[in-house]
Amino acid sequence: MRFDEAYSGNVFIKSHPNYEESKAVLYGMPMDWTVSYRPGSRFGPARIREVSIGLEEYSAYLDRELEEVKYFDAGDIPLPFGNPQRSLDLIEEFIDKLLAENKFPLGMGGEHLVSWPVMKAMYKKYPDLAIIHMDAHTDLRENYEGEPLSHSTPIRKAAELIGPQNVYSFGIRSGMKEEFQWAKEVGMHISKFEVLEPLKEVLPKLAGRPVYVTIDIDVLDPAHAPGTGTVDAGGITSKELLASIHEIARSEINVVGADLVEVAPIYDPSEQTANTASKLIREMILGWIK
Fold first, then answer.
1. In whole angstroms, what separates CA 290 from the centre of its chain?
2. In sequence order, what are the residues at sequence separation of 6 or more whose Cβ sits closer than 8 angstroms to the Cβ of residue 190?
3. Which helix (H) or strand (E) segment is 170 a member of?
4. How far is CA 128 from the centre of its chain?
5. Contacting residues for 239 by C-beta, under 8 A, at least 6 apart
6. Peptide bond preceding 110: is omega within 30 degrees of 0, i.e. cis?
7. What dihedral do alpha carbons 250, 253, 256, 262 form, nearest 10°?
8. Rounded-to-integer distance, Cα 140 and Cα 156, Å
9. Is 135 within any annotated ligand binding site?
10. What is the rounded radius of gyration, in angstroms, for the C-alpha atoms of the chain?
11. What end-to-end distance do the CA atoms of the chain give, in Å?
């Protein structure tokens, strides 16, 4: 991946043309090689960029404009179709480069397994890393039908790497009984069903710490985000998710990177999901990149 010139395709609205001058880097991880239900999230990053043209550049929530933040849209990482391990290796190498140059990485998926190599890279730079995870699903399986590289495993992998007591999951409403039991036994924090109120309780405990935030779009109820691979009824509203992003922005934690994953545009002809994701990305840029 070259950074000496701007990405030549569609870019997220108001992205800065120069990598060197930018504080943050927006990038796509177009992979859905391990999904167990509906593929299509590899097309998420491109569509999120395309619909961003319809966004206002100003956030009424944060009283800030995109031109106030220098962020570079690096485009999508070119990942080898059908090769999960090589794809994960390439993502980790990409993030290693960004962190070595003190950039804030903001990723777009792609299936949720793509977050795993990013969190690995973040932990190498920030050994006291904590993770905030918003999702419908626990993602705590060791494998899916014998395959350890699965979109149902990234949070388990991260918890085993950085310590389960440093992982905080919110909005969870689906998972195997064994996953919930494991989390309880090892001291991992799981908030079922809700995000905002339990998040408010946790954030003061993480004050001053480097935190990576990973958001699966299916934390939203399917009424708000039908365009995803594994829809699950009973989720939160887009209003609550926006409020949660703003709560993090107002907190004393040090957000060092983030991602938004599992947008699968093909399942939402209305483009509601992609448009919502685009707005969430805008608020993450304006709220978390200081």
1. 18
2. 138, 169, 172, 180, 183, 184
3. strand 167-172
4. 19
5. none
6. yes
7. -70
8. 4
9. yes
10. 17
11. 26
Measure the CA–CA gap between 193 and 282, rounded to whole angstroms: 25
> Residue 35: which of 192, 133, 145, 138 has the closest Cα?
145
Task: Check: CB of residue 134 under 8 Å from CB of residue 115.
Answer: no
Strand partners, 134: 170, 215
As a whole number of angstroms, the distance between CA 225 and CA 274 comes to: 8
- 112 marked as part of a ligand binding site: yes
The rounded distance, in Å, linking the Cα atoms of 213 and 161 is 16
pLDDT band at 10 (very low <50, low <70, confident <90, very high): confident
Task: Find out whether 221 is annotated in a ligand binding site.
Answer: no
Task: Using DSSP bridges, classify how beta strands 210-216 and 254-261 pair: parallel, antiparallel or unpaired.
Answer: parallel
3-class state of residue 32 by DSSP: coil
Residues 179-236: tens digit of each pLDDT: 999 999 999 999 999 999 999 999 999 999 999 999 999 999 999 999 999 999 999 9
Secondary structure class of 9 (helix, strand, coil): coil
Q: Report the pLDDT value the prediction gives residue 8, as an integer from 0 to 100.
A: 45
pLDDT the model gives residue 6 = 42
With a pLDDT cut of 90, the percent of the chain lying above it is 95
What domains can be seen in the chain, in order of their start residue? 24-288 (3.40.800.10)
- The C-alpha angle 60, 64, 67, rounded to 5 degrees, equals 130
Rounded-to-integer distance, Cα 48 and Cα 259, Å? 13
User: Is 76 one of the annotated binding-site residues?
Assistant: no
Rounded CA gap, 51 and 58, in Å? 16
> Count of residues for the chain?
290
According to the annotation, is 189 in a ligand binding site?
no
- Please indicate if the annotation marks 216 as binding a ligand: yes
